[in-house]
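BUG-324 | component: ligand-complex export | severity: low

The export step for iron/sulfur cluster jobs runs without errors, but we want the raw record kept on the ticket for reference. Input record follows.
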Amino acid sequence: MKNFGYTSVRDAGEAVRLAGRTPGAAFVAGGTDLLNLMKDGVTRPEHLIDVNRLDLARITENATGLRIGGLARMRGVSEHQAVTRGWPVISEALLASASPQVRNMASIGGNLLQRTRCGYFRDSASPCNKRVPGSGCPALEGWSRGHAVLGGSDACIAVHASDLAVALTALEAVLTVRGQAGERKIPIGDFYRRPGTTPHVENALRPGELITAVEVPRSQAARKSKYLKLRDRATFEFAVVSVAVAIDLRGRSVRDVRLAFGGIGTVPWRSREAENELRGRELSAETVARAGKALVRDAKPRHDNEFKVELVQRALAEVLEGLR
Ligand code: SF4
Protein backbone atom coordinates (compact mmCIF):
# COMPACT_ATOMS: atom_id res chain seq x y z
CA MET A 1 0.00 0.00 0.00
CA LYS A 2 1.33 3.40 -0.93
CA ASN A 3 0.53 6.38 1.30
CA PHE A 4 -1.05 9.44 -0.31
CA GLY A 5 -2.33 12.83 0.83
CA TYR A 6 -5.97 13.87 0.73
CA THR A 7 -7.68 17.27 0.58
CA SER A 8 -11.37 18.00 0.11
CA VAL A 9 -11.87 21.36 -1.64
CA ARG A 10 -14.83 23.75 -1.77
CA ASP A 11 -14.38 25.66 -5.02
CA ALA A 12 -12.93 25.04 -8.46
CA GLY A 13 -10.28 27.77 -8.15
CA GLU A 14 -8.92 26.17 -4.99
CA ALA A 15 -8.99 22.75 -6.69
CA VAL A 16 -6.89 23.79 -9.69
CA ARG A 17 -4.49 25.88 -7.60
CA LEU A 18 -3.84 22.92 -5.34
CA ALA A 19 -3.42 20.61 -8.32
CA GLY A 20 -0.97 23.09 -9.89
CA ARG A 21 1.32 23.21 -6.86
CA THR A 22 1.08 19.54 -5.80
CA PRO A 23 3.23 17.12 -7.82
CA GLY A 24 1.51 13.81 -8.48
CA ALA A 25 -1.96 15.11 -7.56
CA ALA A 26 -5.15 13.63 -9.01
CA PHE A 27 -8.75 14.77 -8.76
CA VAL A 28 -11.25 12.29 -7.38
CA ALA A 29 -15.05 12.43 -7.55
CA GLY A 30 -16.94 9.10 -7.59
CA GLY A 31 -13.64 7.23 -7.62
CA THR A 32 -15.22 4.24 -9.37
CA ASP A 33 -12.27 3.79 -11.74
CA LEU A 34 -9.45 5.62 -9.97
CA LEU A 35 -9.68 3.70 -6.69
CA ASN A 36 -9.58 0.35 -8.48
CA LEU A 37 -6.50 1.48 -10.41
CA MET A 38 -4.86 2.55 -7.16
CA LYS A 39 -5.69 -0.73 -5.42
CA ASP A 40 -4.18 -2.65 -8.34
CA GLY A 41 -1.05 -0.50 -8.32
CA VAL A 42 -1.70 0.70 -11.89
CA THR A 43 -1.68 4.34 -10.90
CA ARG A 44 -0.08 5.84 -7.79
CA PRO A 45 -1.09 9.44 -7.13
CA GLU A 46 0.79 11.28 -4.37
CA HIS A 47 -2.26 13.32 -3.39
CA LEU A 48 -6.00 13.07 -3.99
CA ILE A 49 -8.02 16.26 -4.40
CA ASP A 50 -11.64 15.46 -3.60
CA VAL A 51 -13.86 17.67 -5.78
CA ASN A 52 -17.23 16.31 -4.67
CA ARG A 53 -18.20 19.50 -2.81
CA LEU A 54 -17.77 21.78 -5.86
CA ASP A 55 -20.93 23.29 -7.34
CA LEU A 56 -20.52 21.54 -10.69
CA ALA A 57 -23.36 19.02 -10.75
CA ARG A 58 -26.14 20.98 -12.43
CA ILE A 59 -27.89 19.93 -15.62
CA THR A 60 -29.50 22.80 -17.53
CA GLU A 61 -30.85 23.45 -21.02
CA ASN A 62 -31.47 26.61 -23.01
CA ALA A 63 -32.33 27.50 -26.60
CA THR A 64 -28.94 26.45 -27.93
CA GLY A 65 -28.34 23.26 -26.03
CA LEU A 66 -27.66 21.24 -22.92
CA ARG A 67 -25.07 21.90 -20.22
CA ILE A 68 -24.01 19.07 -17.92
CA GLY A 69 -21.81 19.88 -14.95
CA GLY A 70 -18.66 17.81 -14.72
CA LEU A 71 -19.76 16.44 -11.34
CA ALA A 72 -23.28 15.44 -12.39
CA ARG A 73 -23.70 11.72 -11.74
CA MET A 74 -24.34 9.20 -14.49
CA ARG A 75 -27.71 8.27 -13.03
CA GLY A 76 -28.94 11.86 -12.73
CA VAL A 77 -28.01 12.61 -16.33
CA SER A 78 -29.50 9.40 -17.71
CA GLU A 79 -32.86 10.14 -16.03
CA HIS A 80 -33.04 13.88 -16.70
CA GLN A 81 -36.09 14.80 -18.80
CA ALA A 82 -34.23 17.31 -20.94
CA VAL A 83 -31.69 14.61 -21.81
CA THR A 84 -34.19 11.87 -22.62
CA ARG A 85 -36.25 14.30 -24.73
CA GLY A 86 -33.59 16.20 -26.65
CA TRP A 87 -30.49 13.97 -26.55
CA PRO A 88 -31.70 10.38 -26.00
CA VAL A 89 -28.40 8.89 -27.15
CA ILE A 90 -26.77 10.24 -23.96
CA SER A 91 -29.32 8.56 -21.73
CA GLU A 92 -29.12 5.29 -23.65
CA ALA A 93 -25.32 5.24 -23.53
CA LEU A 94 -25.28 5.88 -19.79
CA LEU A 95 -27.91 3.24 -19.05
CA ALA A 96 -25.86 0.74 -21.05
CA SER A 97 -22.82 1.55 -18.89
CA ALA A 98 -21.80 0.03 -15.58
CA SER A 99 -24.18 -1.09 -12.81
CA PRO A 100 -26.85 1.02 -11.06
CA GLN A 101 -24.53 1.32 -8.05
CA VAL A 102 -21.67 2.65 -10.18
CA ARG A 103 -24.03 5.02 -12.04
CA ASN A 104 -25.09 6.48 -8.68
CA MET A 105 -21.48 7.27 -7.81
CA ALA A 106 -19.63 8.02 -11.04
CA SER A 107 -19.32 11.58 -12.33
CA ILE A 108 -19.57 12.66 -15.95
CA GLY A 109 -16.05 14.10 -15.93
CA GLY A 110 -14.67 10.90 -14.45
CA ASN A 111 -16.54 8.79 -16.97
CA LEU A 112 -14.89 10.67 -19.83
CA LEU A 113 -11.46 10.19 -18.25
CA GLN A 114 -11.77 6.50 -17.37
CA ARG A 115 -8.81 4.40 -18.40
CA THR A 116 -8.76 1.57 -20.91
CA ARG A 117 -9.91 -1.92 -19.95
CA CYS A 118 -6.93 -3.55 -21.69
CA GLY A 119 -6.02 -6.45 -19.39
CA TYR A 120 -2.30 -5.87 -19.80
CA PHE A 121 -2.71 -2.24 -18.78
CA ARG A 122 -4.68 -3.28 -15.68
CA ASP A 123 -2.12 -5.91 -14.69
CA SER A 124 0.79 -4.04 -13.12
CA ALA A 125 3.04 -7.11 -13.62
CA SER A 126 2.73 -6.89 -17.45
CA PRO A 127 4.68 -4.59 -19.71
CA CYS A 128 2.49 -1.86 -21.21
CA ASN A 129 3.52 1.26 -23.14
CA LYS A 130 0.55 3.19 -21.83
CA ARG A 131 1.38 2.49 -18.17
CA VAL A 132 5.19 2.40 -18.46
CA PRO A 133 6.31 4.18 -21.67
CA GLY A 134 8.78 2.12 -23.68
CA SER A 135 8.07 -1.17 -21.89
CA GLY A 136 6.26 -2.77 -24.86
CA CYS A 137 2.77 -3.78 -25.90
CA PRO A 138 1.96 -7.46 -25.32
CA ALA A 139 -1.49 -7.04 -26.92
CA LEU A 140 0.09 -6.71 -30.39
CA GLU A 141 0.99 -10.40 -30.43
CA GLY A 142 -1.13 -11.54 -27.50
CA TRP A 143 -4.82 -11.52 -26.51
CA SER A 144 -6.45 -8.81 -28.62
CA ARG A 145 -10.16 -9.66 -28.71
CA GLY A 146 -11.15 -6.46 -26.91
CA HIS A 147 -8.75 -4.22 -28.80
CA ALA A 148 -9.02 -1.65 -31.57
CA VAL A 149 -9.17 -2.25 -35.31
CA LEU A 150 -8.94 1.47 -36.12
CA GLY A 151 -6.52 4.17 -34.95
CA GLY A 152 -3.91 1.86 -33.44
CA SER A 153 -0.13 2.09 -33.69
CA ASP A 154 2.89 -0.13 -33.14
CA ALA A 155 2.88 1.14 -29.56
CA CYS A 156 -0.75 0.56 -28.50
CA ILE A 157 -4.10 -0.74 -29.76
CA ALA A 158 -6.23 -0.23 -26.65
CA VAL A 159 -9.81 1.00 -27.04
CA HIS A 160 -11.34 3.83 -25.06
CA ALA A 161 -13.89 2.43 -22.62
CA SER A 162 -16.47 5.21 -22.26
CA ASP A 163 -19.91 4.73 -23.86
CA LEU A 164 -20.78 8.32 -23.00
CA ALA A 165 -17.78 9.63 -24.94
CA VAL A 166 -19.05 7.83 -28.05
CA ALA A 167 -22.51 9.42 -27.69
CA LEU A 168 -21.00 12.87 -27.10
CA THR A 169 -18.77 12.45 -30.15
CA ALA A 170 -21.83 11.86 -32.34
CA LEU A 171 -23.40 14.99 -30.80
CA GLU A 172 -20.29 17.16 -31.32
CA ALA A 173 -20.17 18.11 -27.64
CA VAL A 174 -17.69 20.65 -26.28
CA LEU A 175 -15.87 20.19 -22.97
CA THR A 176 -15.18 23.12 -20.66
CA VAL A 177 -12.00 22.64 -18.65
CA ARG A 178 -10.45 24.83 -15.97
CA GLY A 179 -6.82 25.12 -15.02
CA GLN A 180 -4.55 27.67 -13.36
CA ALA A 181 -4.53 29.76 -16.54
CA GLY A 182 -8.35 29.94 -16.58
CA GLU A 183 -11.09 28.24 -18.54
CA ARG A 184 -10.97 26.89 -22.09
CA LYS A 185 -13.22 24.87 -24.36
CA ILE A 186 -12.23 21.73 -26.25
CA PRO A 187 -14.46 20.09 -28.89
CA ILE A 188 -14.71 16.42 -27.99
CA GLY A 189 -13.40 15.53 -31.45
CA ASP A 190 -10.10 17.18 -30.45
CA PHE A 191 -10.03 15.88 -26.88
CA TYR A 192 -8.94 12.26 -27.20
CA ARG A 193 -5.51 11.42 -28.62
CA ARG A 194 -4.67 8.42 -30.74
CA PRO A 195 -1.74 6.49 -29.28
CA GLY A 196 0.91 7.09 -31.97
CA THR A 197 4.28 6.81 -30.25
CA THR A 198 2.96 8.27 -26.96
CA PRO A 199 0.06 6.09 -25.79
CA HIS A 200 0.43 7.43 -22.24
CA VAL A 201 -0.85 10.81 -23.54
CA GLU A 202 -4.56 10.09 -23.78
CA ASN A 203 -6.24 13.47 -24.05
CA ALA A 204 -5.77 17.22 -24.44
CA LEU A 205 -5.93 18.07 -20.73
CA ARG A 206 -2.95 20.00 -19.41
CA PRO A 207 -1.57 19.03 -16.00
CA GLY A 208 -3.93 20.14 -13.23
CA GLU A 209 -6.93 20.87 -15.49
CA LEU A 210 -10.41 19.81 -14.38
CA ILE A 211 -13.43 19.08 -16.61
CA THR A 212 -16.08 21.48 -15.30
CA ALA A 213 -18.86 21.01 -17.88
CA VAL A 214 -19.99 19.38 -21.10
CA GLU A 215 -22.02 21.44 -23.57
CA VAL A 216 -24.11 19.66 -26.17
CA PRO A 217 -25.69 21.57 -29.06
CA ARG A 218 -29.41 21.23 -29.73
CA SER A 219 -30.35 19.83 -33.16
CA GLN A 220 -32.93 17.79 -35.00
CA ALA A 221 -30.33 15.04 -35.36
CA ALA A 222 -29.75 15.00 -31.59
CA ARG A 223 -33.49 14.57 -30.95
CA LYS A 224 -33.49 11.50 -33.16
CA SER A 225 -30.40 9.85 -31.77
CA LYS A 226 -29.77 6.30 -30.69
CA TYR A 227 -27.13 4.12 -28.98
CA LEU A 228 -26.62 0.42 -29.53
CA LYS A 229 -24.09 -1.48 -27.43
CA LEU A 230 -23.11 -5.07 -28.12
CA ARG A 231 -21.37 -6.75 -25.18
CA ASP A 232 -20.62 -10.20 -23.83
CA ARG A 233 -23.20 -9.99 -21.02
CA ALA A 234 -26.05 -7.58 -20.45
CA THR A 235 -25.51 -6.84 -16.76
CA PHE A 236 -22.19 -4.99 -16.54
CA GLU A 237 -19.75 -5.15 -19.39
CA PHE A 238 -17.75 -2.93 -21.69
CA ALA A 239 -18.60 -2.67 -25.39
CA VAL A 240 -17.38 -5.23 -27.87
CA VAL A 241 -18.82 -2.85 -30.43
CA SER A 242 -21.11 0.15 -29.99
CA VAL A 243 -22.79 2.64 -32.33
CA ALA A 244 -24.10 6.15 -31.68
CA VAL A 245 -26.23 7.71 -34.41
CA ALA A 246 -27.67 11.23 -34.58
CA ILE A 247 -29.74 11.70 -37.71
CA ASP A 248 -32.03 14.28 -39.28
CA LEU A 249 -34.36 12.39 -41.59
CA ARG A 250 -36.91 14.02 -43.91
CA GLY A 251 -39.01 11.14 -45.05
CA ARG A 252 -36.33 8.65 -46.01
CA SER A 253 -33.90 11.32 -47.11
CA VAL A 254 -30.90 11.90 -44.84
CA ARG A 255 -30.51 15.63 -44.33
CA ASP A 256 -27.80 15.31 -41.69
CA VAL A 257 -26.14 12.43 -39.86
CA ARG A 258 -23.34 11.89 -37.39
CA LEU A 259 -21.92 8.47 -36.54
CA ALA A 260 -19.59 7.47 -33.73
CA PHE A 261 -18.44 4.05 -32.60
CA GLY A 262 -17.06 2.38 -29.49
CA GLY A 263 -15.07 -0.82 -29.11
CA ILE A 264 -13.37 -0.51 -32.50
CA GLY A 265 -11.12 2.56 -32.18
CA THR A 266 -8.34 3.75 -29.93
CA VAL A 267 -10.48 6.85 -29.38
CA PRO A 268 -14.28 7.28 -29.59
CA TRP A 269 -14.44 6.80 -33.35
CA ARG A 270 -16.21 9.34 -35.57
CA SER A 271 -16.59 8.15 -39.17
CA ARG A 272 -17.07 11.04 -41.57
CA GLU A 273 -16.45 8.58 -44.42
CA ALA A 274 -19.54 6.61 -43.43
CA GLU A 275 -21.55 9.79 -42.86
CA ASN A 276 -20.70 10.98 -46.37
CA GLU A 277 -22.22 7.83 -47.82
CA LEU A 278 -25.53 8.68 -46.15
CA ARG A 279 -25.85 12.48 -46.08
CA GLY A 280 -28.13 13.80 -48.85
CA ARG A 281 -29.17 10.29 -49.90
CA GLU A 282 -32.09 7.96 -49.31
CA LEU A 283 -31.70 5.74 -46.27
CA SER A 284 -31.78 2.36 -47.98
CA ALA A 285 -30.14 -1.01 -47.53
CA GLU A 286 -27.66 -0.08 -50.28
CA THR A 287 -26.57 3.25 -48.78
CA VAL A 288 -26.32 1.72 -45.31
CA ALA A 289 -24.11 -1.07 -46.69
CA ARG A 290 -21.89 1.50 -48.41
CA ALA A 291 -21.60 3.46 -45.16
CA GLY A 292 -20.55 0.30 -43.31
CA LYS A 293 -17.87 -0.47 -45.88
CA ALA A 294 -16.55 3.10 -45.72
CA LEU A 295 -16.36 2.84 -41.93
CA VAL A 296 -14.05 -0.20 -41.94
CA ARG A 297 -12.05 0.59 -45.09
CA ASP A 298 -8.86 1.30 -43.09
CA ALA A 299 -9.43 -1.32 -40.40
CA LYS A 300 -6.35 -3.25 -39.26
CA PRO A 301 -7.65 -6.16 -37.19
CA ARG A 302 -5.36 -8.38 -35.13
CA HIS A 303 -5.56 -12.11 -34.64
CA ASP A 304 -8.47 -12.17 -32.15
CA ASN A 305 -10.61 -9.22 -33.21
CA GLU A 306 -11.19 -9.63 -36.93
CA PHE A 307 -14.86 -10.37 -36.19
CA LYS A 308 -15.37 -6.73 -35.18
CA VAL A 309 -15.03 -5.60 -38.80
CA GLU A 310 -18.21 -7.45 -39.75
CA LEU A 311 -19.97 -6.97 -36.42
CA VAL A 312 -19.75 -3.17 -36.42
CA GLN A 313 -21.23 -2.98 -39.92
CA ARG A 314 -24.16 -5.13 -38.80
CA ALA A 315 -24.61 -3.01 -35.67
CA LEU A 316 -24.71 0.17 -37.76
CA ALA A 317 -27.29 -1.37 -40.11
CA GLU A 318 -29.38 -2.46 -37.12
CA VAL A 319 -29.50 1.02 -35.62
CA LEU A 320 -30.24 2.78 -38.91
CA GLU A 321 -32.94 0.26 -39.75
CA GLY A 322 -34.62 1.04 -36.42
CA LEU A 323 -34.58 4.77 -37.13
CA ARG A 324 -36.22 4.61 -40.55
FE1 SF4 B 1 -0.73 -1.26 -22.95
FE2 SF4 B 1 -2.02 -0.29 -25.06
FE3 SF4 B 1 -0.61 -2.46 -25.34
FE4 SF4 B 1 -2.82 -2.54 -23.85
S1 SF4 B 1 -2.74 -2.17 -26.05
S2 SF4 B 1 -0.81 -3.46 -23.38
S3 SF4 B 1 -2.83 -0.46 -23.01
S4 SF4 B 1 0.20 -0.46 -24.79
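Assignee comment: Attached the raw record above. The chain is about 30% helix and 20% strand.
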